[in-house]
């Protein structure tokens, strides 16, 4: 199997196609579940791409939907095979946000709002280590190292020579003021952030405290967009014990509009770079 197959994206595309076939048949997820003697939640998980889909699942669903074109069935079966392949992140064991990593790996662009921390794709190793240690105090040294390694590997998407991920980040001023690790760690982190912001495919804006109330007060979120028109945009909301993925057009649009307001209220690119540079100098004192 080709090494560039992304199982997360394959599951998502396959789930979208299965939902389309169900809707063409005019059936509800509950009706399909009753026919196959499975739970409705299983059908929902298959369609939203959060669960691996076996070839047997595809065969059974195609039977319920009366798909007569064997080429369609074979195409869906192949997608099911690809969806069960492991991505690079599986080599690190159980990663709590592996679905997000799969989406990020295949995304063409990413818009992020971070109210408290420097976003993971722009973190230095020292900052990431201090952050994980502080945020997860009961985590073993081995698990901390694993998480940091995964974070560093994710950053290959923005340093790739060809078609790097287009990244736009709005950082609340709190992310620059919160002391993570030591003053030296923070100075190096902000200097690195400043350096990366010079890349043509990376944009960083700072949302200063003085802007007051703003649409991002509810917390961090990210909007992922994909090159393939068949892949709808996704809003990612990170949780403590579980994450939320929004794919409905009106949900994505709402967060996209919020992001435009955040960008408008933030300092422009040059002002943001100066703000970051000044903050870095403060940590050097």
UniProtKB/TrEMBL annotation:
<dbReference type="InterPro" id="IPR010982">
    <property type="entry name" value="Lambda_DNA-bd_dom_sf"/>
</dbReference>
<dbReference type="InterPro" id="IPR001387">
    <property type="entry name" value="Cro/C1-type_HTH"/>
</dbReference>
<dbReference type="GO" id="GO:0003677">
    <property type="term" value="F:DNA binding"/>
</dbReference>
<feature type="domain" description="HTH cro/C1-type">
    <location>
        <begin position="18"/>
        <end position="72"/>
    </location>
</feature>
<dbReference type="Pfam" id="PF13560">
    <property type="entry name" value="HTH_31"/>
</dbReference>
<dbReference type="InterPro" id="IPR043917">
    <property type="entry name" value="DUF5753"/>
</dbReference>
<dbReference type="Pfam" id="PF19054">
    <property type="entry name" value="DUF5753"/>
</dbReference>
<protein>
    <submittedName>
        <fullName>Transcriptional regulator</fullName>
    </submittedName>
</protein>
